[in-house]
Design brief:
Blueprint lengths: L17 H4 L27 E5 L16 E3 L13 E7 H4 L9 H13 L2 E7 L2 E6 L4 E3 L7 H5 L7 E2 L7 E2 L5 H16 L8 E6 L14 H11 L3 H18 L7 E3 L12 H16 L3 E3 L17 E3 L5 E3 L4 H4 L4 E4 L8 H4 L5 H14 L4 E3 L2 H6 L1 H10 L9 E12 L5 E9 L1 E4 L7 E7 L16 E7 L8 E6 L9 E9 L4 E7 L5 E3 L3 E2 L5 E9 L14 E7 L4 E9 L4
Parallel strand pairs: 2-15, 3-4, 4-9, 9-10, 10-11, 11-14, 14-15
Antiparallel strand pairs: 1-26, 5-6, 5-8, 7-8, 12-13, 16-17, 16-28, 18-21, 19-20, 20-28, 21-27, 22-26, 22-28, 23-24, 23-25, 23-27
Helix pairs in contact: 5-7, 7-8, 11-13
C-alpha cells in the first residue's frame, strides 16, 4: 500500500477515551415488550419509532451488490450473495520470462484455471523493477522481481541498482531506460496476444509504476527523487516517456477490456515535493489512463482524512470544510475500476498505527470514506474484515452503488483537524453520501465526543500529535437557540411510500427529540419522540416516515430535520435515510 513519505509511524502513548473510541460491532437486538413511547431498549416498536442497541447496518430485502464491484481479498471470506469474489495475484517479470525471449505462461494458466474452478476472479499485479530490500526489524524481506538474466542482457552493474530508502530500503533497476522498458512492454503485449485480458477470471490488472513501497506504486520521497535525478538521469520527461510507453502496451494488450486496467497513480504526494513538473505530470497521467478506458485506485484509506483535494479522485473541500465529489470524473461516471486498499489491521500493523485499541474507529471511518468517494472496489484482509463483520457486509452491498441504485443515503456527522494540500490547517467536517448536513440558522451544531488516536490521519502533517483526534458526533446547542440539525437529500435520490431514517447516537444525555418533515401534501409532519436513557450506550433510533415529500420545502431549503426538545442536547453520529421500495 502506498504511504506518503510525510506520514510517520507513531509510537506515542496518547490518552485514550475508551467509550468514545471503541466503535466495535454491536449485535443488533430485537425488541419485545410494550409501552407508549420508546423509553427502554426492551420495548417494542411504537408507531413510527423503533430502537436497536449499537450500530445498525440493515438494508431492505431488495438491495443487492452493484455489478463490477466488491472486495479484493481472500476468496474464503464471507461475501454478500451476488458479490464478486476477487483475490490478488502477484506475478513478476521473472515469473513470466525466466529466459530472455521465452515466455512461461504456465503459472498464469494454472491460476486462471483454479479461479474458474473455484468460482472467483483475480486482480493482477505484475512487478518488473523490484530488485530486493526489506526491513529486518519488522521481519520483512522484499523478494527480487527482476529476471536473473537482466544484469547480462542490460549491462547492469552495482551502480545501476538504486536504493529508494523509506521503510524497506527498496532496491530497483532503472526500468525507465529505453532497452529495459521496451523488453517489459514486449511481455505485456505477448500477455495480451494470449487472450488473457478477456478471461472472465481476470477481474482487473494494476498498471504499476515506481515507489519506495513494495508494490511498485507511484510516488517518491524528495530524497529519492533527488538521488534519481543526480545519479541516474531521471527527470519528469524521462518518467513521462516510461509510463506513457507502459500505458500504450497495456492499452494494446487489453483492447476491448480496458475497464479492467487500474492505474496506481494520482497527483497525491507529488504535489508536496514542490516540483510542478512532476505534479502536473502525475495529474496528466491520470487523465491519460482515463482516456484509454482505464480506471484508477487511491491508497492509504486507513488514513481516512487524506487526499481531500485530489482531482484524480474527484475530491475537493469547500470553504467550510465539507467534502465535495465530482461525479463527472471517468471512474465514477462510468463502469470501470475505482478503488482503494484497506487491509492494514491486526497486530502486525501496530508499528504503523499504534495499539489496536483504535482499530474499530479507524476501520469504520476508512470504509465510510471509501463510500463517500464512490469507490467500487476495496482491497481488504482477514484482519480487516474481522474488525466489524456487519459493517464489512454493509459496505460490500454498497460499493459501486450510484444515487439511482443505492438503498440508502447518509451523513456521518464528525470533525477533524487537517491540512488540505498546501493550505493552512483547518477542519474537515462529515463524511456524506447523497445526504448532507449543514449548519444553518436554528441548526448551528457543535462538534463533540472527541477521541484521540495514535496516528496521523490528516492529509498532511499538522504541528504535532496533539492534533491527532476526531470528534465523533455533532450536537444541537440549545443554549444558543439552535435546537435543530438540518439535512438535505440529493434531489436525484428518489423515494416513494414509507421511508426509514436511522439516527445513531451515543446516549449520553437526557434529551428528548424527534424528526420533522413534509408529507406528500406538503404538511409539516412530526414523528413520535425518542427519550434518551443517558446511560452512555450506542443506540440507533429508526423513524418511519409516511409518504415524505423531499423537495427542499422546509426552512433553508432542506428536506428534514432533527428537533431537540431538551432539557439536554442530543449528540448525533450517523444518519441514514433508507428507501424501502426499489427505486
Amino acid at each position: 500500500m502506498t504511504r506518503m513519505s510525510t506520514m510517520t509511524r507513531s509510537r506515542l502513548a496518547k490518552t485514550k477515551m475508551p467509550l468514545l473510541c471503541l466503535l466495535a460491532c454491536t449485535t443488533l437486538l430485537s425488541l419485545s415488550g410494550g409501552g407508549c413511547e420508546v423509553l427502554d431498549p426492551d420495548s417494542q416498536t411504537i408507531n413510527d419509532v423503533s430502537v436497536v442497541m449499537g450500530e445498525d447496518y440493515s438494508l431492505p430485502g431488495w438491495a443487492h451488490p452493484a455489478p463490477y464491484s466488491g472486495y479484493i481479498g481472500s476468496r474464503n471470506l464471507p461475501r454478500p450473495n451476488g458479490s464478486m469474489r476477487v483475490e490478488n495475484l502477484w506475478l513478476s517479470w521473472a515469473d513470466l520470462e525466466p529466459v530472455r525471449g521465452q515466455y512461461n505462461w504456465e503459472m498464469i494458466e494454472n491460476k486462471l484455471a483454479a479461479a474458474a474452478a473455484g468460482g472467483y476472479q483475480l486482480n493482477l499485479h505484475l512487478q518488473s523493477i523490484t530488485y530486493g530490500g526489506g526491513n529486518e526489524s519488522l521481519g520483512i524481506v522484499v523478494d527480487r522481481k527482476v529476471p536473473d538474466w537482466a544484469e547480462e542482457e542490460f549491462g547492469l552493474t552495482e551502480s545501476d541498482i538504486i536504493n529508494l530508502g523509506w521503510e524497506f530500503d527498496l532496491l530497483i533497476i532503472p526500468g525507465w531506460r529505453p532497452d529495459i522498458r521496451a523488453a517489459f512492454n514486449d511481455l505485456i503485449r505477448a500477455f495480451g496476444a494470449r487472450g488473457y485480458p478477456s478471461s472472465p477470471q481476470l477481474a482487473s490488472a494494476y498498471i504499476l509504476g515506481i515507489s519506495p513501497s513494495r508494490g511498485e506504486e507511484f510516488w517518491l520521497s524528495g530524497q529519492a527523487l533527488d538521488r534519481l535525478e543526480q545519479d541516474h538521469g531521471f527527470s519528469a520527461n524521462v518518467l513521462d516517456q516510461w509510463i506513457t510507453s507502459r500505458f500504450e502496451a497495456y492499452g494494446e494488450a487489453f483492447a476491448g477490456e480496458t475497464y479492467k486496467l487500474v492505474w496506481v497513480g494520482k497527483q497525491g504526494s507529488w504535489r508536496y515535493l514542490g516540483r510542478d513538473d512532476y505534479s502536473n505530470l502525475a495529474l496528466r497521467l491520470v487523465h491519460d489512463a482515463w482516456a484509454m478506458g482505464a480506471g484508477n485506485r487511491s491508497s492509504a484509506i486507513e488514513y481516512y482524512n487524506t487526499w481531500l483535494n485530489e482531482p484524480a479522485l474527484g475530491q475537493s473541500v469547500d470553504e467550510n470544510g465539507y467534502l465535495k465529489v465530482d461525479e463527472t470524473v471517468a471512474p465514477i461516471s462510468s463502469v470501470r475500476f475505482f478503488g482503494d486498499e484497506n487491509e492494514e489491521y491486526g497486530e502486525q500493523w501496530v508499528w504503523r498505527f499504534g495499539s489496536q485499541a483504535g482499530e474499530a474507529q479507524r476501520y469504520r471511518f476508512s470504509l465510510l470514506r471509501a463510500l463517500q468517494m464512490r469507490m467500487r472496489f476495496l482491497w481488504t484482509s482477514d484482519g480487516a474484515e474481522a474488525v466489524n463483520p456487519a459493517l464489512s457486509h454493509y459496505v460490500g452491498m454498497s460499493l459501486g452503488q450510484s444515487v439511482t441504485t443505492s438503498a440508502d443515503a447518509w451523513a456521518y456527522l464528525r470533525e477533524s483537524p487537517v491540512r488540505t494540500s498546501h493550505s493552512a490547517p483547518g477542519v474537515i467536517r462529515n463524511f456524506e453520501r447523497y445526504l448532507t448536513q449543514r449548519d444553518l440558522p436554528g441548526g448551528i451544531t457543535v462538534a463533540t465526543q472527541r477521541c484521540f488516536r495514535e496516528f496521523n490521519a490528516g492529509s498532511h502533517h499538522l504541528s504535532g500529535a496533539d492534533d491527532w483526534y476526531d470528534d465523533l458526533a455533532r450536537r444541537t446547542d440549545l443554549a444558543s437557540n439552535n435546537p435543530y440539525i438540518y439535512f438535505d437529500l440529493d434531489d436525484r435520490f428518489l423515494v416513494s411510500g414509507e421511508t426509514q431514517v436511522k439516527v445513531e447516537i451515543l446516549d449520553n444525555s437526557s434529551a428528548t427529540w424527534h424528526l420533522e418533515y413534509l408529507n406528500r401534501r406538503n404538511e409539516m409532519t412530526v414523528t413520535n419522540s425518542f427519550h434518551n436513557r443517558d446511560d452512555g450506550k450506542v443506540r440507533t433510533v429508526t423513524f418511519t416516515l409516511i409518504e415524505p415529500r423531499f423537495a427542499n420545502g422546509m426552512n433553508h431549503g432542506v428536506d428534514f430535520r432533527i428537533a431537540c426538545l431538551g432539557p439536554s442536547d442530543v449528540a448525533v453520529r450517523w444518519v441514514r435515510l433508507v428507501r424501502q421500495q426499489v427505486p
